[in-house]
Amino acid sequence: MKTKQFRIGRLATFGQVIKALGKTIRAMSDGSLDSQVGARICNGLGIMRACLETQKLEQLEARMEKIIDHVPYTRIKTEEAEVYVSSGANGHDHARATRMISTDETERMLEKIEAALVPPPRPCLSIITHEGDDAAAAMEKALAEHVACHPEDAGRTVEDFNWIGGERGLSSRRVQEHARWYSDAAYWSYSPNALAAGALDAELRAILRKEVSLEHVEIEFERVMKAVPR
Length: 230
Fold this sequence. Notes:
Layout (H helix, E strand, L loop, with lengths): L13 H16 L5 H33 L6 E4 L4 E4 L10 E2 L5 H15 L6 E6 L5 H15 L12 E7 L3 H17 L3 H5 L2 H11 L7 H11 L3
Parallel strand pairs: 4-5
Antiparallel strand pairs: 1-2, 2-3
């Protein structure tokens, strides 16, 4: 009779090691794993757990060293505890908590401190304007479209974003020139099969890439197509 092979799975993270420990203990309890073998596995997993926790503590300490000088003699309240931070002349004082806390709690508090010291970068939106367009109105429209796709940003204003672009697109005259060229090329230079395959559209897009930024090619392509005589 074949016995089922015991597998503990991946051991790349702290959580996976804890899960493997629990799995091993349960296997020993129900008799599917020999207690001596299980004990050796638990011993090895315990060593791995200690190593991973030490690594995490070193990472947290490095993060604390980077931010400690930016919060002079400040008491920071969090949901878990109050942390007292002082920046000495040597820049190597450490945060002291009012009680013993776990590495997970320390990491959460550090994230709050880092967020307060270094605000997250503002997201970027882009616009393109044409002759007679109001840039402010274009930004408001772009923001409304963004919020419709990302409801979590509801309540943000134009000032909350970095704006990319704003450069003018093709002039109305240039759009008409492209439209006439497209119409003539479709009649004189391209076969019905080539038109159906999109060869002329590809050539127009290649021309537009030389005149406008890459992210605005499709916008200008649509403007030209609307102007093409039918």
